[in-house]
Design a protein that fits this description.
Blueprint (H helix, E strand, L loop, with lengths): L1 H19 L9 E3 L2 E4 L1 E3 L2 E8 L22 E2 L6 E2 L13 E2 L4 E7 L8 E7 L17 H7 L2 E5 L4 H5 L9 H16 L5 E11 L1 H10 L11 E5 L10 H18 L9 H10 L1 H9 L32 E6 L4 H6 L4 H13 L9 H22 L8 E5 L24 H5 L14 H20 L13 E5 L7 E5 L2 H8 L3
Parallel strand pairs: 2-5, 6-7, 9-10, 9-11, 11-12, 12-13, 13-14, 14-15
Antiparallel strand pairs: 1-2, 3-4, 4-8, 8-10, 15-16
Helix pairs in contact: 6-7, 8-10, 11-14
Amino acid sequence: MKYFYRLLLLWITLLLSGCNSEVQKTEEYVDTTTGSYYGIIDGATTSYKGMMYADASQTFRWSKAGVVEDSTNPRVADKFGKVCYQSVSTPNYMLNNMSENCLSVNVWVPTGSEEIVNKRVMIFIHGGGFIGGSSSNPLYNGAKLSEFNDAIVVNFNYRLGALGFLKVDSNSGNYGIMDQQAALEWVYSNIDKFGGDKNSLTLFGHSAGSMSTLSHILSNTTTKTKFKNAIVESSYMGFDFKDEKSATAIAEIVLNSIKKSSSKSPHDTDAKTVQDVSMELYAELIGLELADISFESFFPYSPYVDGSVIKSKLIKAQTTVPLLIGNVNAESNFMFESLKGTKVIDLYTEYVKKYYDSSITIGSQPELQTFFTNYAFECATNYFLKNNTSYTTNYLYHFNYIGSFNFWGTFNDCAGEACHASELPFVFGNFYNQKGYEVYSTSSDQQFSKKIMSIWKEFSQTSKLANFDTYQTDQKMISITNTQPNFFNVDYMLSDKCTQYNKFY
């Protein structure tokens, strides 16, 4: 009996000590241009979270973000920064954690090696259609990727929706892209203090983040930071950036609606009202643009070609660095599942029938999904690479690995399909769904994750993939499937499928 009580006492002691344990911070802090920060040691990585890189408080609404005052007191960087205001379906980790002043950056440093110096740096830009998303999404946690790749991983927030991309007065309207430029400059100026090599930067992004990535590395860029290479996941270049006429028309409608909904001027109206009012107009703005014969309107709150921040459309620009670029097999399935029952589906069906494919049946979701996957994603990427002659070391991939879980949860059209964003759990080694909930993964999922992380690592290191041909060699692509043990095979892009779309780019 005495032995039992001793075990019980030991168990209670261990339990209480676990509850009261403090996180282990680094012995020394890092001095950056915007403050001094202690990191948090967690296994094989040290993280620095929520470091502010610019000031997006209301004073700087609809303008270039301000400079963050250097803090005199070092703080422990153990918590993610505030989420940028958004009105889309909000995952649990974002609830009650939004702010207009949201421009923070996170850094994960591998601690497995004896000396942390001149490490490669992988900088990720999150997606979300330029209206949603956050660097604090557990899916994007950089710890596992940092450890596996022996590289520093960075991500950051940028302004979204109307607060990030509304053309107000004579200002640019591309504030979200300017935020990204400021974050990238912060990385370039400070990453050596974390042990990183500023001359070995890989930029990668998904969806809106991949479109952003392209805007920073193509020949039309105004971004000052220089990169070694880039990985572009699911860019939708068929929905290229808007022109100034569209941006001006959208801003006029939104600003007038804000004025009607608030007793204050748009500049003085609270951020939540600005976002809520602007998102209520989303379908109306899409209809406005379709009347003007343009698919660019699918993202009313997104970058536009202003001649300064964004000099020209992406699809015809030349890359300035080697690319690993590709798409998943069923890119558009999630998009139309989420739009079921809305007038947006009818608007797009009528537009597609009139200008692209008269054989499509009104309300035929599978036909629309196939059309938009081809038009906006696969064939647009193929067109971009065909016309890109500045680099001959570009690689094209096609992702069709079906995981043991449905990344989109209740979206039936994504069950048994590789839908938009379904590669992300494997790229980061974090098995979460799109709502931020952890999901069960099989040993095959985990094995595949290591394989895809190793491919991303190899390209980041060398800008080449030893076992695969470049796209310029007979337009070959890398086919990523469930076929074991390699998962990766060589296939050919079906160029004939894309012939009918090329005339529209």
